Please model this.
Amino acid sequence: MRLFECGSLVPGCEWHTRAEDDAEIVRRAVEHMRNTHGETVIRENMIENIKARIANESEAPVH
Model:
């Protein structure tokens, strides 16, 4: 299982998502960025930043 925690990109945000594949995590994260953080344009560097912060759930830091 793969994990993305928005707080690793947007400090203070507690939203996170899990999925079997990175493409689904990116899709969900982009939707979250639009709906919660008001991002109207999702640039390629934002996608790359999301991808860089996706981890195997077993390797993710414990909070």
Notes: The chain has a mean pLDDT of 94.
